[in-house]
Each structure stands twice: as C-alpha cells, then as structure tokens.
Design brief:
The structure is a single chain. The protein has twelve helices and 18 strands. The chain is α/β, with parallel strands linked by helices. The chain folds into three domains: 229 residues, Zn peptidases (Aminopeptidase), CATH 3.40.630; 67 residues, RNA polymerase II/Efflux pump adaptor protein, barrel-sandwich hybrid domain (OB fold (Dihydrolipoamide Acetyltransferase, E2P), Beta Barrel); 61 residues, no CATH class. The longest helix is centred in the first third of the chain and has 18 residues. It is globular. The two termini are 23 Å apart. The relative contact order is 0.12. The structure holds zinc ion.
Length: 396
C-alpha cells in the first residue's frame, strides 16, 4: 500500500468512484491500531483536505516504521470541487440508519450525497472489517465564525481518554445533539472518534492546525513512536498555542434552524464568547432570538447553509468528569434502572424510558454524568440514550 493519488477525478456517475476518496493509505505492522482521518466532509472546508494531502506526502518515509495502519480520506469530493458546503444535502447529516439501510438494499438515491455516502461506506467498512486492533477516527472540520480550534467528542470514556491527550478544548455532547453524522455512525460501530474544528474555513492557519493534530494523533493512537516524527514538539506547541487554555465544555442547548426561518446571526460572535441569559444573539422571521441561558456560545452560524444556528455550553469542572468516570466504571448506568419510573427500553439496550411523573425529581444532570446525553420525548415519557462501547472496544 502507500498509493497517493494526485488529484481526485470527479465522476459523473456513482459507479466505482470509491478510490477517489482515498488520499493515501499506509500500512506498517498491520496488527497494530488503525487511524482513519477524514477531511472536508463539508466542501466549503478545504483545510482538512489540504492537511491530509500534506501528511500523505510526508508519511511515505515513515510507513515501514508504523505500528498500525493509516487511512487518509476526503469526505465530500463533489462539494469540495464546487467549493460549496454540500451539493444536495448535508453529507454530515446523511448517515442515518434509514439512508444507510436504503443504500444497502440497493437504492441508488437521487442526491449527490447519496453517492458520496455509498462510496465512503464501502471504504470505511473495508477498513473496519479488516481491523485487528483499536480503531480511531478523526473528522476534520472548520467553522464559519472566527475563534479558537476545539475538539467535538461523543461522550464515551474511550473517546474522552483519547481526546484528553491533545492540548485542545474538548466539547462534550454536541455529537449527541446532531442526527446522522459520520462520527455517530462510526461511534455506533465501536470506533474511538474525535471531531476537530480547526479554525475559520478560509484562514491558512486552519490547515496548519489540522496537520499538527494529525501528527499528534499518530502518536496518541499508538501507531508512530514520538522519536520517529519530525518535529513532534513543534506540532504540539503549535496546537497548544492556537487553542488557548484547554478546557472541557459541555453542550446544553442547540438552536435548530431551517431554510425558511431566515435566520441571521448578529455580527461579531466568536466561539466560546460568554453570553448572558436573555441576550439577543440572532434574528429570524419570528423576531429576536435570545440566549436561553448564561453560557459560552459555540459555532454561531455565519454562512448561508446549515441546520444549527448556535449552541450554548458551559465549562465542566474536572471533579464531575472524574465522578462520571467512576460511576460508569462501577456500572451505575445499568443500576439506574432500579429507580422508580425508570425502565429499560424494550428495543434498545442503551436507552432508558423515564416516566417523568414518577421520576420527576430525577435531575437530567445525573443522566448526563452516566452518559445518557441523547433525549427524545415520546408522549409523557422521556427516552434517553447513551452510546454502546463506552468502556469496551469491539476491535481489540
Ligand atoms: Zn464541517
């Protein structure tokens, strides 16, 4: 292996374009861990693709020393060529069970993103099916607003442990607010996942931040030795400097928007700016939109396309992280089912059904601690879900 494609050919048809997504693949000792790095799943975020191509050129010299496998993958080839976020629909909301099942049943789909999804699934499945050790996946993004780079991490203990090795702020719980992301799909397959917002879309530092993250991830995944990577300290220093004080922030609120809302963010908000309860942040056709709580604003939407207006989060004290780790290791998520008004979901072992009339004193914060971050109301009942593979890898 070790083939680097110069430039992806954009195909008009969905047939046999899988190889175009692969920017490079490198295999040293195949019994080691696997690192999958995906860039530019949003076509208006070129930084990820640039960083992957830079890494691919340099990784050849290291290939024989790698303890494991590395796959560098471009996400949305068609949107990237057109420099748009997506062609027909957001590829990073496209990985729903319904879409995946439809393609598996032979459906062709009519949207460009159906083709992208089909191609990516075939590449990723081949990688996962041949893995003989832990699998890590990075998803490289950028934001429309200015601000510090940060990581987005689905709340499992395995994800947290990996993410905390990087000198960056970690956002917990955002993955659980979004449906159909690629990392959601990979998490459900048991992969350790790490999303990274490297900076503003068009800033040259963004690709540099992505590249630094990629080099560090080779070491943190256990695939390359520190000493084998040229200037690893430089990359670590670069990322730490770009990221500011590394914190852990949990997402508590998402403002959803649709195309006909005419949502417009007020100017000047950056990631992690402090906002007050009731502060006007944006406007839409219904009027002013205020922050429902005091907190840190995350990913304010300053581009035409997107379903998320902004998020509000808050910093988590290390004590709570320690406590939740302890509780999960002790099996508290299973024990919680003995509480009155709480029972196991009949079809899903990772979900609880809560009768809020009975269990009304049960604070949601406790469920967060135990990893149940995804919530849905079914009539008077609240269904909360956590991720499988919280502490255990299916690959090892
Ligand atoms: Zn993105």
């Amino acid at each position: 292996m070790g083939i680097v494609m110069e430039h992806a050919q954009i195909s008009e048809t969905p047939a046999d374009t899988t190889r175009n997504h692969l920017v490079g693949s490198f295999c040293g000792d195949a019994s080691g861990p696997t690192l999958i790095a995906v860039g530019s799943i949003h076509g208006n975020e070129p930084g990820g693709s640039k960083a992957l191509r830079r890494l691919a050129l340099k990784l050849h010299d290291l290939e024989s020393k790698l303890h494991g496998r590395v796959f560098l993958i471009e996400g949305s080839i068609r949107a990237l060529a057109d420099k748009v976020r997506f062609v027909d629909s957001d590829l990073n909301r496209h990985w729903t069970r319904e879409n995946v099942t439809a393609l598996d049943l032979g459906g062709q789909g009519s949207r460009a993103e159906d083709w992208e999804l089909k191609e990516l699934l075939s590449v990723l499945r081949e990688i996962l099916d041949s893995a003989r050790n832990e699998v890590f996946a990075l998803d490289l993004h950028s934001t429309s607003a200015l601000g510090l780079p940060f990581a987005t991490v689905g709340d499992t203990l395995r994800n947290r442990r990996f993410a905390q090795k990087f000198p960056v702020t970690i956002l917990l719980g955002i993955e659980e607010q979004l449906e159909g992301t690629m990392l959601e799909y990979l998490n459900n397959r048991g992969v350790v996942t790490f999303g990274f917002e490297g900076g503003q879309h068009d800033q040259p530092e963004t690709a540099a931040n992505h590249e630094a993250l990629l080099w560090l991830s080779l070491v943190h995944a256990g695939i390359a030795a520190e000493a084998d990577i040229p200037d690893l300290d430089g990359h670590r220093h670069h990322l730490a400097k770009a990221s500011g004080r590394a914190r852990i922030v949990e997402v508590l609120f998402r403002k959803p928007v649709s195309d006909d809302d005419k949502f417009v963010m007020d100017p000047g908000y950056k990631n992690f700016d402090l906002v007050g309860k009731g502060q006007t942040l944006a406007r839409d056709r219904h009027g002013n939109i205020q922050s429902p709580r005091k907190g840190l604003i995350l990913m304010p939407l300053y581009q035409g396309k997107g379903d998320d207006g902004f998020f509000i989060g808050r910093e988590v004290a290390p004590f709570w992280l320690w406590l939740s780790k302890l509780l999960r290791k002790l099996g508290a998520p299973t024990l919680v089912r003995i509480l009155p008004g709480v029972w196991r979901h009949p079809d899903d072992s990772e979900s609880l059904v809560i009768d809020t009339r009975v269990a009304r004193f049960f604070p949601l914060q406790i469920l967060h601690l135990l990893g149940f971050r995804r919530r849905a109301w079914k009539g008077k009942r609240l269904v909360v879900s956590r991720r499988r593979f919280d502490t255990r890898s299916p690959f090892v």
